[in-house]
Write a structure and sequence with these properties.
The protein is mostly helical. The protein has six helices and no strands. Helix 3 packs antiparallel against helix 4 and helix 5 runs antiparallel to helix 6. The longest helix is centred in the last third of the chain and has 24 residues. The chain is elongated and about 40 Å long.
């Protein structure tokens, strides 16, 4: 994966700004974010429309704040009511890719 694609998936500079360069805080934040991604991966497809939007709303906010822009964009499409299969698949794939990068970052912190 190229550095540009990785940065679009997860902007580490933004993450460092949000955690003030505190590695312990970063690890804690990443663990919470990983749990949120896991919840999305396991529950969003089966959730009803209202719960799906709520899950997507929470994820979009967290992802955008931490620099996971592609995931935030995919979640925002679901949050605004788009329920097409392609949008849900895009969210699940963005979650998978972001999770991989976050796990790598958490392991190196």
């Amino acid at each position: 994966m190229s550095e540009t694609i990785e940065r679009r998936l997860f902007d580490l500079i933004q993450l460092e700004r949000q955690t003030l360069g505190d590695k312990m805080l970063e690890r804690e934040v990443l663990q919470l974010f990983l749990q949120q991604i896991s919840d999305i991966q396991t529950g969003i497809a089966a959730a009803d429309d209202r719960v799906r939007r709520e899950m997507a709303h929470a994820l979009a906010g967290s992802a955008r704040a931490l620099g996971a822009h592609a995931l935030a964009d995919a979640a925002a499409r679901i949050e605004t009511g788009r329920q097409e299969a392609a949008d849900l698949e895009a969210l699940i794939e963005a979650a998978r890719q972001t999770r991989h990068l976050v796990e790598m970052r958490a392991a190196s912190s």
